[in-house]
């Protein structure tokens, strides 16, 4: 149990600031840009939201009741799958790999944006982060090694965790030991979102980094119930 909770805390580390406790309004028109049903790339989808509850209509016109089950994540009942949304509400990535982008006008990008790609299936072997010298040249001000400290404030998770992560081209890379599927991204303004799922447990949220430090809160759902707390990050080297 401890090892799985460690993964949840690790990959949920760069997550929700206090402001994220307020759910953003996802209401509006979207366009499907990746793994769309029936190949309907560019087809519209719609969300009508009221608080944590919402109604969604996908790119083939199928309606579903949905809700925010935790900040950064929604569950669509009729589709029987969840989805992660970015802090700005621009992108929504479903468990199936389908990606919606908020319709802001202009042409629809047929090729998906790399940072919103759904992670591959969980691997049985260890996932090892590449060494710094193997990474591509830095493209954001936050690229490089970071040290993270997580403290649990609520729930049945261990009190504190310390671990390294690597940011490469704005992508947050963490070694989950093959126990969970992970994705994370740092925007040019320093906002961070991370999600993880594995073994019936999951965590998600968003936060913010400055040039050399970061802080915020995290939350997740483990086999013993929900956990949440605070995190701090410091650049290494």
What is the topological layout?
Elements: H1 2-11, E1 28-34, E2 44-50, E3 53-57, E4 63-70, E5 73-76, E6 81-85, E7 91-94, E8 99-102, E9 144-154, E10 160-168, E11 171-173, E12 181-186, E13 191-198, E14 201-209, E15 213-222, E16 225-235
Antiparallel strand pairs: 1-2, 1-8, 2-3, 3-4, 4-5, 5-6, 6-7, 7-8, 9-10, 9-16, 10-11, 12-13, 13-14, 14-15, 15-16
Could you describe the 3D structure shown?
The chain folds into 2 domains: 134 residues, Lipocalin; 94 residues. The chain is mainly beta. An 8-stranded antiparallel β-barrel has the order 1-2-3-4-5-6-7-8. An 8-stranded antiparallel sheet has the order 11-10-9-16-15-14-13-12, with helices on one face. 40% of the residues are buried. Strand 10 and strand 11 form a beta hairpin. It is 4% helix and 47% strand. It contains 1 helix and 16 strands.
